[in-house]
Every structure is written in structure tokens, then in C-alpha cells.
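STRUCTURE REQUEST FORM
Protein name: AI-2E family transporter
Source organism: Paenibacillus glacialis
Requested output: C-alpha cells
Priority: standard
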Amino acid sequence: MTSLNRFIKIGIAVILVFIIIYLGSLVSFVFKPLLSLLSIIMVPLMLASFFYYLLRPLVNWMERPKLNRSLVILIIYLVIAVLFSVFIIGVFPSLRTQFFNLVNNAPNLLNALGKQLQDLEQTGFLSKILPEDVSPLTQLTEYLNKGFSLLSNYVAGMFSFFSNFAVIMLTFPILLFYMLKEGDKFGQKIVSFMPKRFREEGTKVVHDIDSALSGFIVGRVVVNLALGVLMFIGFLIIGLPYTLLLTVIAVIMNFIPFIGAILSAIPIVIIGLIESPSVAIWSLVIILVSQQIQDNIISPYIFGKQLDIHPLTTIILVLVGGDAFGIIGVIVIIPVYMIVKIVVVKLYQLFFKQKWEDA
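Status: completed
Returned output:
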């Protein structure tokens, strides 16, 4: 009888949740201002969270009894401003030159690409890797068009993602300042809303989430920078044009799980193919070798067992996140999954594990 009553209560709770969702859909206009506000602050908040986990260890290390936290943060801001100025003066001109050269030479590059494809078709190389009843040039052109289309969609998504630049630049440093100054108290405030008997476990969950996000973000930056160094050296050795620009694009795109590595490889291989088929092949070899070093040597050393996510799970999460929320969903889906996993595991241990084992 007790089990039946519990089942009825759960059933009623589920029905009430669906009723609330349905009623919410009928008055969706009420939530539009809230959603608009959320969309405005989402990018600055994500950037502030990202740099919070990057800079927090440095802030904690620099903080001293005679050097308060606010002053430490301002000193770090000043150092970042100096480094950014050095980047603008020393690196950005070369990056800008390569970018505009690539844009201005685009028609010539496309003509050169078409000539390379025709030469490969005449030599019979493409017919060996494509079906006999398919025109190699037509099929490969279709693949390239699909690749360009996919790449363009994500680049467009990135531009819309950072479209409101003024709002981001005004709010992001302020959010980051207060997060670095008061961020450690945020978890304590969340735990304070819990019933007293759950506060100890709640503190552990908040600590686990904080450690997981910190390890993931810092580790991801280190791994991607190492990947960029490997690819840059390899591209210099084979003489790939636009080496710096393509490496920067690859490093940025690799922050997008799974899909980013594929998208970043498309322009690299195309530019290599325009130069010569051998450069394209060597470019692909460098990408694959760098990815293998990243996945099998650098990542296990940096992450250890902290990032225990199966590759298939990553692919599914990225596809679902991208379909539901676009570029933002693709970027945040892995951290969100990590948070949900920690919370669900803790809830299972607290409320269901003992009952399940005793059943």
C-alpha cells in the first residue's frame, strides 16, 4: 500500500510538471523580456566565467595580507592590457596581413583549386578513391561546397555570437572583476539555501562542480595551445601558406568539441591542395599526428581521469546542443553535462543507492 501511495504521488508530481510546462507555453510572451535579457548577458557571462577559472589560481597565488584581492585583480588587468598591446603591435599586423591576403587572393585561389582538381582527375588519382560511376571532379566539388557551407554557417554563428561587441566589452570586465573578487562566496550562498541536513553534501557537490569546471577550462586552454604549437611548427616545415592565420583558426575552432577539429581541417587541407597535392597530404598528416599527440599524450596528462566522457557521448552531446541552442549550445554542452552528471550521481547516492541495493 505504501509503495502504491508513493507511485501515485510521483505520478501526480509528473502530471503537475507537464501542466506547468503547458501553461507556460500558453503565456510564452511573458518570458520574452527575460529571454532577451538572458541572450544579451549570456556571452559576457560565459567569457567572464571562462577567464575567472583561468585567472583565479593566479589571483589566489598573488593575494597577500598586505595586498588585498581588489588590488591584485587590478594589477592583473594592467598586465593583461600590456600583453594585449604587445599582441596588437607584434603579432596582429602579421595576422591581419595574412587574412587580407587570403581574402584578396580568394578568386585566384579558387581558380588554382579548380586546376589542381582537374589535374588530379586527369592523372586518375581521384578515380581510385571515388566510385567509378561518379565524376571525381563533380563529387569532390560537392564535398568542398558542403564543407564551405558548413564552415560558413559556423563562422556566421560565431559572428552573431559576438555581434553585440560594445555590450560585451563594457560588461565582461566588470563581471569578471566581481567574480574574481567574490566568486568563492557564490557556492556558499547556494548551499545556504539548502536544508541544514543537506548542507555538508551540498558543499561537496559545489566543490566537485567547481573543481571539474576549473580543470576542464584550464586544461582545455593548455591542450589547445599545445596543439597550436605542434601544428604551427609542422606547417612551417612543409611551407604551408597562411601558417599563422590557419593555426589561430584551428586553435579557436578546437574549443568546439569534436566538430571544431573537422571544421578547422577543411581550410587547411584546401589551402594545402591549392599549393600542391603533396602539401595537402602533409597538412592532413600533421593535423592527424597533432590530434593523436593531443588525445593520447597531452590530454591524459592534463586531465587524468577528470574528463571521463566517452567519445560517443561527446558526439551525441555536441549534436544535441548544436541542434537545440546553436553555437552556444555546442560550446557549453560539455560543461553543462559535467555539472548535471555530478548532481545526478550525488542525488542517486543520497536518495536511491541504498534503496536500490536493499531491493
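Reviewer notes: The chain is about 85% helix and 0% strand. Residues 309 and 338 are 9 Å apart (CA to CA).
Form closed.
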